Amino acid sequence: MMNRRQFLSAAVVCGAAVAHAPRAALAQASKYDLLIKGGRVIDPSVHLDGVRDVAISAGRIAAVEPTIATGAAETIDARGKLVVPGLIDIHTHTGRSAEGPGLVLRDGVTGWIDAGSQGADRVAEIVAVARTSPQQGRVLVNIGRGGILPGGDTMDLTRADVAAARDAIAKHRDYIVGVKARLSRDVVGTNDVEVLRRAQEAASAFNLPLMIHMGQTASPMGKLVDLLKRGDIVTHLFAPPPNAIVDDSGHILPEVLAARRRGVWFDIGNGQTGHMRWDTIGAIMKAGFWPDTFSTDWNTNSKTTGVVDLPNCMSKLLGYGMTISDAIACATLNPSRIFPLFNDRGTLNVGAPADVALLELREGSFEFLDNYKGTITGRQRFFPAGTVLAGKRVPAA
After folding, report:
1. CA 337, 338, 342 angle in degrees (round to 5)?
2. Taking the CB of residue 16, how many other CB atoms lie within 10 A of it?
3. CA 127 to CA 133: how far, in whole Å?
């Protein structure tokens, strides 16, 4: 039998144990900062497509398992949704407005490239937006030193100023990651080959990629693509004739095939005018020339156009036979390979930065628009359903 002193001592020990029990339980329950439960995880980087839980700690992916029983400080119920790496959009004009990064972030875009909104004269304005962007944002400097101009960026060939572009890159080397050359006839006139040559000269001096805006050019596409090096990007690959990537018989140009073999990337660049027409898309898809990346050519009025958002653009080839996993790869894994700053993104592998997009894949009847007021109907469409950036849930609009 206990004496009074022993009883009081035991009571103190029990009381201490009870007092510490909730804290211990809380510590155990909060092993992770965030837990995304029960979603269909599609991660092309590791060939994963299945229902999984995703745990996040300290801004990084901590575990991806069929079931994670340990609790977290916060949980997202992802049942019925797709859980994919954060989306990367390599052709936008996000930097043209201070609110741009936040708008695309809510669409699941956790990395963006502003593709040539400004040239050397005013590129600092785009760089300033990228510096304050909540997610990773970078810039391609337009070889036309005045940037995008209503009368054409480089109709006046003196605007294709190699020295000015090089000076701008050197000054903003941490944020300028490439050069953009817009080559359509209404942008450059008949100067396309010389503008491309100058843009390549500026980019190559820093071992940077060049992105060309193709479609409706004065020169044949084959002549232009022959000037591209490994790592360069052709955007607007679905642009219709004149000078599309297919000939009149629907065959992919041999110069285009050679460019892909030597490591040139081909990007969609949805846009609003002159870049997509369903008959050209059909011919290119029939020829089996699939895009490397989806991108939007986004600006602040995209919600009111056929662009809408990146998930909408990703949906447009599902009816042509593209798989869901391949569509996701074109907005995650593939763009992560183009620009070095994204090398550790586009994946949900353990240890990677915890950038995650939640998507709804809805079944029904959906109308998709090209740039010529043409429509097709698809039975599946991706919708943005949530974003996690650096391990933290992004508030909904």
Report:
1. 65
2. 10
3. 10
Strand 233-235 to 265-266 pairing: parallel
Q: Which domains does the chain have, with CATH numbers?
A: 86-345+372-377 (3.20.20.140)
pLDDT tens, residue by residue, 230-281: 999 999 999 999 999 999 999 999 999 999 999 999 999 999 999 999 999 9
CA max distance for the chain = 104
Give this prediction's pTM.
0.92
For the stretch 46-102, pLDDT in tens is 999 999 999 999 999 999 999 999 889 999 999 999 999 999 999 999 999 999 999
| Nearest by Cα to 112 from 390, 271, 303, 345 | 345
First to last CA, the chain: 66
Q: Which two tokens stand for residue 243?
A: 């000078």
- Token code pair at residue 235: 């955007």
User: How far apart are the C-alpha atoms of 45 and 345, rounded to whole Å?
Assistant: 10
Distance CA 150, CA 163 (A): 23
